[in-house]
């Protein structure tokens, strides 16, 4: 059993810690006010979880989240548990070897039902909305933009979480205000821009364009905290600056080998997701490690925490 299958084997609980939420590539277990956030080695592409995992992907992305939580800690507090209870540590001890480095112990937060997306470049669903309406989330953009163009300034483009596992729905800031109130909407927008400014500047020093990213926030003891994973290649678009060329979709820093392979076999997206050749797996793992090294400045995958 390896880590991209282990969470499948821990489908409903980790010992007697019940599964509380399961995403395509992440699992969340809950014990009272303490949660265990596990990143698996599963990889998704074109909204499908593929038949092969990427060894250590969960660990690499978890260590990236730890790095970024620390990097922006003076801007926003986060949901990481400063001191997990002895009871929780005892409960997860039997699984430590499976989840070491790819799990975060976090505090239960009252999550805002909004994904806080910030875009420095026009791409993905933002590009589709721009083509259709000339705007994104009600924000009118200059005419004549090309796909992947850098925007005159970053834009805040929230999305409503769709629990059915479908695509989240881009909403206007006004709808966000109606949903969570003006105070929290304004504060989450401010924090989103502040974090993006710091993170994109750091990424740029390492030759990476942070094109866009998605944050999730919650309330712990009435205070806003940054939650979920943060600034990982799964929650962000990272592009290599050296090959940046607006006018079309940019190569994904981490998933391009997978995408190219799936295109090469003319995969019918209605069919079960295929497994990946060893070469695609190993090259993709190398890209995740490269992102880790560039962003953290660490040569190996020694744990941040
Ligand atoms: C979307 C995400 C998710 C993660 C893993 C698997 C499926 C979904 N999620 C995060 C929470 C959550 N709830 C309460 N407190 C928290 N600190 C967090 C966090 N992070 C609920 N869902």
Automatic annotation (TrEMBL):
Annotated SAICAR synthetase/ADE2 N-terminal domain residues: 20-272
Highest taxon of source: Bacteria
Gene3D superfamilies according to UniProt: ATP-grasp fold, B domain, Phosphorylase Kinase, domain 1
Sample GO molecular function, one term: ATP binding
UniProt-listed Pfam families: SAICAR_synt
Matches recorded under InterPro entries: SAICAR_synt/ADE2_N (IPR028923), SAICAR_synth (IPR001636), SAICAR_synthetase_CS (IPR018236)
Catalytic class of the enzyme: ligase
Official protein name in the record: Phosphoribosylaminoimidazole-succinocarboxamide synthase
Protein's organism: Granulicella aggregans
Lineage: Bacteria, Pseudomonadati, Acidobacteriota, Terriglobia, Terriglobales
């Amino acid at each position: 059993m390896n880590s991209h299958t282990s969470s499948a084997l821990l489908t409903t609980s980790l010992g007697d810690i019940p599964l509380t939420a399961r995403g395509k590539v992440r699992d969340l277990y809950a014990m009272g006010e303490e949660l265990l956030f596990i990143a698996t080695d599963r990889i998704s592409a074109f909204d499908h979880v593929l038949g092969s995992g990427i060894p250590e992907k969960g660990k690499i992305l978890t260590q990236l989240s730890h790095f970024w939580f620390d990097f922006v800690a003076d801007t926003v507090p986060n949901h990481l548990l400063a001191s997990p209870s002895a009871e929780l540590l005892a409960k997860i001890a039997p699984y430590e070897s499976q989840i070491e480095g790819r799990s975060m112990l976090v505090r239960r937060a009252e999550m805002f039902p909004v994904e806080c997306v910030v875009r420095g470049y026009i791409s993905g669903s933002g590009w589709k909305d721009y083509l259709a309406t000339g705007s994104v989330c009600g924000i009118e953009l200059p005419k004549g933009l090309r796909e992947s163009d850098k925007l005159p300034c970053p834009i805040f483009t929230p999305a409503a979480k769709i629990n059915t596992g479908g695509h989240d729905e881009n909403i206007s800031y006004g709808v966000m205000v109606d949903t969570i109130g003006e105070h929290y909407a304004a504060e989450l927008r401010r924090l989103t821009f502040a974090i993006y400014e710091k993170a994109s500047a750091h990424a740029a020093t390492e030759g990476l364009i942070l094109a866009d990213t998605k944050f999730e926030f919650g309330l712990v003891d009435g205070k806003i905290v940054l939650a979920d994973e943060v600034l990982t290649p799964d929650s962000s678009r990272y592009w290599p600056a050296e090959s940046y060329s607006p006018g079309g979709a940019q190569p994904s820093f981490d998933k391009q080998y997978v995408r190219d392979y799936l295109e090469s076999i003319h995969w019918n997206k209605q069919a079960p997701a295929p497994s990946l050749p060893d070469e695609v797996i190993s090259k993709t793992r190398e890209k995740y490690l490269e992102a880790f090294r560039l962003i953290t400045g660490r040569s190996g995958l020694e744990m941040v925490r």
